[in-house]
Amino acid sequence: MDVVTAQEMYEWDRVAIKSTGLDGRLLMENAGRAVSSDLEKKLGTHQRVIILIGAGNNGGDGFVIARTLLNRGYSVEAWQIVSDSKVEGDARYHKEIFIKSGYTLYKLEKTDDLSESLKSADVIVDAMLGIGVKGRLREPVKQVVELANEQRAFRVAVDLPTGVPADEGIVEFDAFKADYTCIIAALKMSALVEHTRVYYGEWKVCDIGLPVKKLPSPSRKVWQREGGRRVLPGRDPNSHKGSHGKALVVGGAAHMPGSIAMSAKAALRSGAGLVTIATPKSAMNAVASYVQEATFLPLAEERGVIKDSAGVDVSAYDGVAIGMGMGRGQESNNLVSHLISTVKAPLLIDADALYQLKNLVGLLRSRTYPTILTPHPGEFAHLVDQSISAIVRSPFSYSREFSKAYGVYTVLKGPATIITAPDGSQFVDLSGNAGLAKGGSGDVLSGILLAMMLQSGSITYALNNGCMLHGLTAEMLTKDAHSMVDLLATDLVEGLTQTFRTFSS
Hints:
- The chain is elongated and about 85 Å long.
- The chain is an alpha/beta fold.
- Strand 2, helix 3 and strand 3 (75-80) form a beta-alpha-beta unit.
- The protein has helices at residues 6-20, 24-40, 56-71, 89-100, 111-119, 141-150, 194-197, 225-231, 258-269, 284-290, 330-342, 351-357, 377-384, 388-393, 395-406, 441-455, 459-479, 489-503; strands at residues 3-4, 48-53, 75-80, 105-107, 123-127, 154-158, 180-184, 187-188, 202-206, 220-222, 246-250, 274-280, 295-299, 301-302, 305-306, 319-322, 347-349, 371-373, 409-412, 417-420, 426-429.
- It contains 18 helices and 21 strands.
- Helix 9 (258-269) packs parallel to helix 18 (489-503), helix 11 (330-342) crosses helix 12 (351-357) and helix 12 packs parallel to helix 13.
- K(+) binds at residues 58, 126, 162.
């Protein structure tokens, strides 16, 4: 599933029309019919539907939707909320078909008239403005949006809610607040950005018959279960523990042994053949009581935290993860620097190691083996010296710029986790729920990702699947055994058993 900006969507339309001869009016007909068929799944024949129609392609879609639903016997009022002069081109063509089909078109003259209709509506369909909106809404659209948002009706947006920018990074806007959005042809970037996604409600992408082989790739896609299953690492009948990778996890402290323990056990649950835990000796008993299958590399310590990096020999390992529960003292800084310079295998940097990385980020460019960073927005903001709000508003841009600049994979965690490769290509994982918003969830994810990398031919696919397995486990556990309130990180580790059984089947 592709994710596009407004400009990329315009280019798709242009290429579709130029390369195949598809008429824009036909594409509009296809879009309106696709939305109508999707909307029918949510409509009852007794429900009263108000369709708010503007100018441009979105308005043209609205005329097709209104005509199609009326043809199918639904109770529909079509309201044109802009002046006749603004309805041009393909939209005007479909407006004329609507009128010639014998249906009544209501035109907004006084908002009081529309207000009465909206109050009696069961469903309000927003087909006012499309992807070209920038900034605050103007009248009369602004007032119509405010009236619609006040109603108890089920609110549906066509392509994207009126007023919501298609792209990331825009803060000042007014918008229709949809309960459901039928997105046309491709997912718009703003459906995945924290401050704009709330306006979409639930959503579905509707196919309108664009020539997919001719369309330029936006290098931004949603990772889906079908693709994940195809590339999930399998088990050869003749394999042994060494076949599935030797992992090293580095971190922990006497006062914080849980993080490294959960990462290690998650790696084992996710298929790593052998896992070694490098941690202060005073933390080993606590960690070993939870992870009996791991071996240990005791590190020199002072007051329960890592003292130096001299005892960390990384030559025997196929992948290394560092940072979980490690602490933020100067010795941790030395350890991160040592591992960046010496690990000749994939290196995953998380948690406290990300904090230390800010002063060492230049070292990343010299690595010839894959480097993976797994920050949440706060950690990433600290790393790139930006505000958290800036990262949340423009997660695609910041993670892409950083990954390309330093040659790393960035897993920017959130409700929509963005996985960016060094070449700037991006995947989005939408699995999971609010049950993951608890300490330790990220430690579990790091362990899963480390194990996936040891077993996969592609780092990108390993990261995509690791994030999905993590999220699917939360979904599965909160469906039956747990709530989003009581779910713990340790529950995720144990729940991986069922996830692997069901996801791979």
